[in-house]
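Thread: zinc ion complex, take 2
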Amino acid sequence: MICMSKDDIFYNNEIMYSDCPVCGGVKTLEITNRTDNIPYFGDILETAVSCNSCGYQSSDSISLEHNDPVRFKLKIDSTKLSSRVAKSQTATVSIPDLGLKVEPGPKSQGYVSNVEGILNRFESAVLRALKLEGDDIDPDVQENALNIIDNLTRIKLGEMSTLLILEDPFGNSVIDDDDADKELLTPEEAEKLQTGFATFDESEVE
Ligand SMILES: [Zn+2]
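Output below.
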């Protein structure tokens, strides 16, 4: 597996110019790389691009820290809604009892939220999926989705408790609660997690 290490990054607050992929402007795209230290996440590299010609803007951040792969488990109910959750862009969040899981993709962002924020994110995702299906929705799919929303609401109201799991192969995520169980992932478990990065086995790269 190839990972970027801090030694690979030579630039800091350095501006580069490139051609704009949107308007085709020549050297109009300003690229700024900046390293920063963020609570919970450690050192990150932020890349921001903006085009002087068409105004196109985009930004992305990647973690420069590689800590031990970790899993946090917390039994959540209405008393845990304000517990801090820091999720890096390489983390997987799941609520197995409800069949909910968010795996990192290329567009994943890290965020610091709390348990209620995580529940709200899941709720929005289910609602979005329902809306996408529209009127042609399979009745079973619809019932399942409504059940999930009902259960998320019951957790928030204190009528139900369930297990929240946060797994990060780079160890840059945390459920910041004294009752949370923290365990290290075995190399096999870490390997199975998606990271959102394109990774290659060294043997595949000639
Ligand atoms: Zn442009």
